[in-house]
Amino acid sequence: MSDNDTIFGKIIRREIPATIVYEDDEILGFNDVSPQAPAHVLFIPKNTVIPTLDDAEPGDAALLGRLMLAAAEYARRQGFHQNGYRVVMNCREDAGQTVFHLHLHLLAGAPLGHFGAIGR
Prior knowledge:
The protein has 120 residues and is an alpha+beta fold. It has one domain (7-108): HIT family, subunit A (2-Layer Sandwich), CATH 3.30.428.10. Helices cover 20% and strands 21% of the residues. A 5-stranded antiparallel β-sheet has the order 1-2-3-5-4, with helices on one face.
């Protein structure tokens, strides 16, 4: 399996469909196919595959920050910043990570309550 052979790699290459809601040179954002909130967007790096947050290195700091800023930019554009939103990154199986291509979940559009199982 190549470094970018996950379902996310296939979405980046447009080999499988996704509802893309955000894109820049480094980051792709698309709607989760099993949403856990009215708005549930995944943000992934397009050019670098890091399997989990635990695999990130100090040199990846700018990319990790860019993921957060892309999610915040999207949330502001959609008006989610007014009532709030959640950004989550799961790390490995026990946390619910099912695709091993680092990604953020942005959840918004309804009160989210306290932390708990939110899906992938």
